# Entry
Amino acid sequence: MDPHLLRTFVTVTRLGSFSEAARELGYTQSAVSQQIAALEGDLGAALLHRRPVGPTEAGARLLEHAGPLLVRLDAARADITRLVGAPSARLVLGATPLAVTAGLAQALAEVRRVHPRVDLVVQVLAHEALPALVATGQVDLALIDGLAAPSDPLPLPDVGPLGTVAVAEQPLAVALPAGHPLAGRPGLALADLSAARWLDAPDLAPRPDRLRAATGVDGFRCATRYLGTDVRGLLALVAAGHGLAALPSAALSGAPGLAAVPVHAPRLVHRTELVRGSLPEGPAALLARLLDAG
# Structure
C-alpha cells in the first residue's frame, strides 16, 4: 500500500469529509477522491461510504492497521534523521505531570550550563501519547510514570526501536481524607479499599480498572472524573471526600487535609522511566546520560 494513499484515507475518515481532507492535506477534492479510489482498487474493497462519508466494514478494519503503520513509517524517518543529522541546539522533553521533579530540574540546569544556548522546551503530556512522539521525533526524550511491580518495566506500545531506563521508583501510597477511618494505619492492602469511592484521574493516578487488575478484586468505583494535570486540584478533591487516589508518597508530603497511607499489598511502586530513541551528541544526549546516572 502506498503510505500517501493510506494517510489520505485516514484523514478523510477522521474528518468525515472529502473536501475537509483536501483542505487539510493541500490537495484538490478530486485528487483526494482519486487517491481513495486508487487505494480501494489496490485492496479490492470499498473502504468508504460516500453519503454520509464513513468507513465500510473493510475500511474500519484497515483503520486498525493504519495508525500503527503510519507511526512506524514516521518513526523510521525520524530515526534516520537523528542518525545522520547535525546535533541540534533545541531540546524538547515530553513528560507526564508527576515526572517533572526537582531532580529533573537539576539535570536540566546542568544541560543549560554545558549548552548555554540551548532552546529548552518541557511539554507535559499524557503518557499514552509520549512513546509515539519520541519515535516520530516530535519530542527528543520522554519521562513517563506509572504503576508497576518493583523492577518491572512500564508497558509501552510498540511504535519503534525505543530504549527505556528506570530513573526513579517511589513507594506508593493512598491519599485519604484526614478523617478517614483508615487514615491512621501504618499501611494497607489496596483490596481493603475496593468498596471505597475513587477518583478517575487518567493523567495523574492509576485508573480504577488498573487497580482492579493489580488486586484481582472487583470494585474501585469511580466517583468523580478529574481531567487535568494539576496534582493540587486532585488532592483538594480527595481532601473534600470526592474520592481516593493512589499516588507516589512524595506527591502527598505535606498536603493539607490529607493522610497518606503506604500500600503494603500488592507489592507495587510508582515507577518513572526515560524513553529515548537514537540521539546524536548534544543537549538531549547529555540529559539522557544525566537521568540514567541519577
